[in-house]
Specification:
The protein is of the alpha+beta class. The protein is about 35% helix and about 20% strand. The protein has 2 domains: about 1-45, no CATH class; about 55-100. It contains 4 helices and 6 strands, in the order E-E-E-E-E-H-E-H-H-H.
């Protein structure tokens, strides 16, 4: 990865950068030198910036998780009404659903627990 360093700013990271007489050709896009300033092409050594995940992605993941918990609520109610304990599989499943937001890949790469 590469960057353009001018006297006032740093631009990047880019996959490819070529300097021409009056512009930089950056990943197929022209950046006029009179707009960004003259500069040098250097290796990008900082961590690659990660795009910000929109809040709606988090909301949708939590909504799905909440719906799956709600779909199994009847088992909790039945256990309470009858005095017969829920199976450990269902207890574990519901706990795994509650733990979904703590997964490393949340909210983009979720491993959804399987219903027993």
């Amino acid at each position: 990865m590469l960057k353009i360093v001018t006297s006032t700013d740093t631009f990047g990271p880019f996959r490819s950068v070529e300097k021409q007489d009056d512009h930089f050709l950056v990943d197929g896009t022209i950046f006029p030198i009179n707009v960004i300033g003259d500069g040098t092409i250097e290796e990008w050594t900082d961590p690659i910036p990660q795009p910000e995940i929109p809040e709606i992605v988090y909301e949708n993941a939590r909504k799905k998780r909440d719906e799956l918990i709600t779909q199994s609520d009847w088992r909790v109610i039945r256990a309470a009404d009858t005095g017969v304990a829920m199976s450990q599989d269902w207890i574990d499943y519901r706990q795994a659903l509650r733990d979904v937001p703590a997964q490393d890949g949340f909210p983009l790469n979720i491993v959804w627990p399987e219903e027993p």
